[in-house]
From TrEMBL:
Signal peptide from the UniProt entry: 1-27
Name of protein: Cupin type-1 domain-containing protein
Keyword terms, alphabetized: Apoplast, Disulfide bond, Manganese, Metal-binding, Secreted, Signal
Domain Cupin type-1: 66-181
Lineage: Eukaryota, Viridiplantae, Streptophyta, Embryophyta, Tracheophyta
Organism: Ananas comosus var. bracteatus (red pineapple)
Residues bound to oxalate: N101, N111, H116, E121
Binding site for Mn(2+): H114, H116, E121
Amino acid sequence: MEYSNSKPRSLLILFATVFLIISSCRADPDPLQDFCVANLQATDITVDGFPCKPTSSVVSDDFFFSGLSAPGNTNNMFGSNITQANVANFPGLNTLGLSMNRVDLVPGGVNPLHSHPRATELGFILQGEFNVGTGNAMLITAFDSQLPGVVLAPFTLFGSTPAIPNDVLTKTFQVDQSVINLLKSKFGN
């Protein structure tokens, strides 16, 4: 079938391309099986996660994680703590494509700018007024990945090895080199 006008065809190709890109990015693949407790000792990670433990080795503790029930230590430069519940410490999540975090914040605390390279994040504030109230805050975050990964902007920009050259950072942030040196001193460079 030929189109007399190229605009609808171009629009259709654009929508199809965008759909394919969005649907194939930033998530774990669909589970290939229903039950696969992670063998965390294995070194051969597969496209669907860790290899499965033998069924005879699976125990009830593989499906239990109590780490989200208690506040974490917020005595650090950010005034926050992230407790992760992912396949690395909760083997029953293997192949399910989900994980959660508990985020604890003191007043004025922050969860540093970050991204999750393998997941989308959704957060629920369960206590407090995020970080502007007079008391602590607590959030639960959910991910569409069993191991979402994290890239922390402050450490990536100012504490990486090898270091990002100062002239790149001064030009990017439009600040003096003394500001960049101060920031690097706080993050190990």
